[in-house]
Amino acid sequence: AGLGEFRIRDLNDEINKLLREKGHWEYRIKELGGPDYARIGPKMLDHEGKEVPGNRGYKYFGAAKDLPGVRELFEKEPLPPPRKTRAELMKDIDAEYYGYRDEDDGILEPLEQEHEKKVIAEAVEKWKMEREARLARGEEEEEENIYAVNDDESDEEGGKEREGEEGQQKFIAHVPVPTQQEIEEALVRRKKMELLQKYASETLMAQSEEAKTLLGL
């Protein structure tokens, strides 16, 4: 490491040059029918017994591994933290997450009450100023009757309850309501149809329908 950066780089380049020449001879030996030393030869190990690191076939030996820009090539990026599943995320969600316990600390509620009083006081002050301005212009102010009832609005809502002279409630219906007699007649007709469908044959039913048609019923 004391040789200096440039000397270390030159020596490392010289070693890689010799390794490339060695590789060419190994390939030539294989062409001539000899053993494949690139496959069966021993691996290059450093003094710690680890395989010599390299990048795109270029190897770094000794102090060359600690040169600026070289160490970053072999530093492994930290693994990203494992993503939590939806069930794990929902496990930590409670009422406090949605803000339902914000007032339990005894701090928020007094602040809200103080702010509410301030807003009400400002609204009252603004109303008084506007009222004084209208009176100064000579405009007569008519107080709104909050107990007044608008008949049109009540009719639009589908009917309004009204008190009769005898104290009984009366309703205004906006749809036709059948009388008791009409209801009884409809029930009788329905009962006749059920009896006919139960006991009459198809031929008799057809004749009955034909007779009704001829009589115009």
Could you explain the architecture of this structure?
There is one protein chain. With 217 residues, the protein is mainly alpha-helical. Among the domains are: 70 residues, no CATH class; 34 residues. The chain has eight helices and four strands. The chain has a two-stranded antiparallel ribbon. It has a two-stranded antiparallel ribbon with strand order 3-4. The termini are far apart. About 3% of the residues have low confidence.
Q: Taking Cα atoms only, what radius of gyration do you get, to the nearest Å?
A: 50 Å
In DSSP terms (H or I, runs of 4 or more residues), the helix count works out at 8
Which residues form runs of ≥5 with pLDDT under 50?
159-165
List the helices and strands in order.
HHEEHHHHEEHH
Backbone shape: elongated
Calculate the mean pLDDT score and round it: 77
Strand order across the biggest sheet? Answer: 1-2
Strand content: under 5%
* Terminus-to-terminus distance: 119 Å
Largest sheet: 2 strands, antiparallel
**What's the number of extended β-strand segments?**
4
Structural class determined from secondary elements: mainly alpha
Helix content: 40-55%
